[in-house]
Amino acid sequence: MVRRGSLISRPDHLPSPGTAFDRLTVQVNTTTVATFTNLNAANGYVQQSFDVSQFAGQTVTLKFTGVEDASLQTSFVVDDTALNAS
What we know:
By secondary structure, the chain is mainly beta. 0% of the residues lie in helices and 44% in strands.
């Protein structure tokens, strides 16, 4: 049974403290299970995880969507994704 999803991310830009201009959304089928923004900026890669237990036993589509505004760039680097049973 799949219970957790995870990814390694590196959002590397924080244009303005307290303002989320850019975002990375993680969806399972059509349900948003996680959202990360430029406010999650970090030096280096960070492991993120999210609950996907509601999809146990199903065949699913995992979708990542990045959206940025027109001003400053945020690079959402996604690596090493996994859906884990635990």
